[in-house]
Design goal:
Helix content is 35%, strand content 27%. It contains 5 helices and 8 strands.
Length: 201
């Protein structure tokens, strides 16, 4: 978390400074943050450096979306991720020129084959404040409860399986970088009680 903050400070400084000495200081700060992150992640320093060299401008969190889709039987839709083989709520990055609600509709269709309609923003959680594995960037995720509108199960390049699960039969092998057991419990709670307030941290 500290390395992310250091790298964000360096990125923002590099975006706005006009002083050549400050630029050198921010570049040194970025190199330090890169080394710290690479050490803690047991990753190649060059790969981390390349990742952050592509980022420019004022550093802000990235926005992700996840769709909690329920069928008439009250089961939740999950997809199996090809990257790690774990089950997840369908979702991904919010797109430019799409609202978060439009992005979740697109992501659910792309990953599962189902058409959905967002009916509630159930939660807005900072990824770093949830017990996910470490990640390089700061990410805020928006979790939408969605109504099923149609479609049929279909996998994609990102998903290898599509399934519906009751709360009592949730799979144990979740894609922990994307969906946690707590997320699923809270989505079931919001489905059962639409009057619950939006959760955030």
């Amino acid at each position: 978390m500290w390395a992310r903050e250091i790298l964000a400070t360096a990125q923002t400084g590099l975006a706005f400074t006009t002083d050549p000495y400050d630029r050198q200081r921010y570049e040194s700060l970025r190199a330090l943050g890169t080394r710290i992150m690479a050490t803690h992640a047991a990753a190649d320093v060059g790969l981390i450096a390349d990742l952050f060299a592509r980022e420019s401008g004022y550093a802000t969190p990235k926005v992700g979306v996840r769709g909690a889709v329920f069928d008439a039987a009250g089961r939740i839709l999950l997809v199996r991720e090809t990257t790690d083989g774990g089950w997840s709520l369908p979702g991904g990055w919010a797109e430019v020129n799409q609202t978060p609600a439009q992005s979740v509709v697109r992501e659910v269709f792309e990953e599962s084959g189902y058409h959905v309609r967002p009916i509630k923003l159930a939660a807005m959680w900072d990824r770093a404040r949830q017990p996910h594995p470490p990640a390089p960037f700061s990410v805020v995720r928006l979790f939408f409860v969605c109504a099923l509108e149609g479609g049929a199960p279909a996998t994609s390049t990102e998903t290898s399986e599509v399934g519906w699960f009751s709360e009592a039969e949730l799979p144990a092998d979740l894609s922990m970088g994307r969906t946690l057991p707590h997320h699923l419990r809270r989505m079931f709670a919001h489905w059962r009680d639409p009057g619950l307030p939006t959760e955030f941290d």
